[in-house]
Known about the structure:
125 residues; mainly alpha; elongated; transmembrane; transmembrane helix; membrane
Amino acid sequence: xxxxxxxxxxxxxxxxxxxxxxxxxxxxxxxxxxxxxxxxxxxxxxxxxxxxxxxxxxxxxxxxxxxxxxxxxxxxxxxxxxxxxxxxxxxxxxxxxxxxxxxxxxxxxxxxxxxxxxxxxxxxx
Length: 125
């Protein structure tokens, strides 16, 4: 039983790690791009890592074809929905970032700073 738990954890970590490393490389290439794109990549990392770990463990368990198909369908649908929700939630961060950038630009151009009505995040307030 302990050996099984160790193998499950190992396979899940390998799948998630490989998926995460691929996305880290993408994030480094996109580091000078918009915050929206960076947030999308971060969301994709989380979703891909969970999907890869779950699928690798499912494949290693040698499930029947039907069971593996069910796990694949459930994980795929959950991945799509999770990514969509993360992107929608990330829009508020992007909008707040844009509002703060506009206020900062006005400070440089006009010498006045009017902070956004609501702080986008605690770090940007």
